[in-house]
């Protein structure tokens, strides 16, 4: 997905990758990205926990949840913390660049 975004848009100057929820929080606090794509289930902290911490810190990037879980409670929580969309895996990388997701 990172490679696809790099090849098909020049909208984002930098793409940061995180291997777990805590690393994601660290990137948000340090770099204040415009947009983030999160999974619900990540090691250390979940995507919902990441969103909650970002909201509490007042640094909430436009957020798209990309998850294999379609449980309504996850969707509700993502919306509660400002998620812009909730997409189910598998998902084509091209879906990330649709006009409705542009910052």
Summarize the structure.
The protein is an alpha/beta fold. The chain has four helices and three strands, in the order ααβαβαβ.
* Strand arrangement, major sheet: 1-2-3
**Weakly predicted, low-confidence segments:** none
Which class best fits the helix and strand makeup? alpha/beta
Identify the CATH architecture. 3-Layer(aba) Sandwich
Beginning-to-end CA distance, first to last residue: 17 Å
Topology pattern, helix = H, strand = E: HHEHEHE
From the structure provided, what is the oligomeric state, counting identical versus distinct chains? single chain
* Strand portion: 15-25%
What's the name of the CATH homologous superfamily? Response regulator
| Total number of helices | 4
- Sketch the major β-sheet: 3 strands, parallel
The 3D shape can be described as globular
CATH topology annotation? Rossmann fold
Give the CATH level 1 class: Alpha Beta
Number of domains: 1
Instruction: Summarize model confidence as the mean pLDDT.
Output: 87
For the CA atoms, what is the radius of gyration?
13 Å
Q: What's the total count of β strands?
A: 3
Provide the helix percentage: 25-40%
């Amino acid at each position: 997905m990172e490679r696809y975004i790099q090849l098909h848009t020049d909208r984002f100057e930098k793409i940061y990758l995180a291997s777990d929820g805590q690393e994601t929080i660290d990137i948000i606090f340090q770099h204040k990205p415009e947009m983030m794509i999160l999974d619900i289930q990540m090691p250390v902290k979940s995507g919902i926990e990441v969103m909650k911490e970002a909201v509490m810190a007042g640094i909430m990037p436009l957020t798209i949840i990309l998850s294999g879980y379609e449980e309504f409670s996850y969707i509700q929580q993502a919306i509660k913390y400002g998620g812009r969309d909730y997409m189910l895996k598998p998902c084509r990388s091209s879906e990330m660049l649709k006009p409705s997701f542009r910052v």
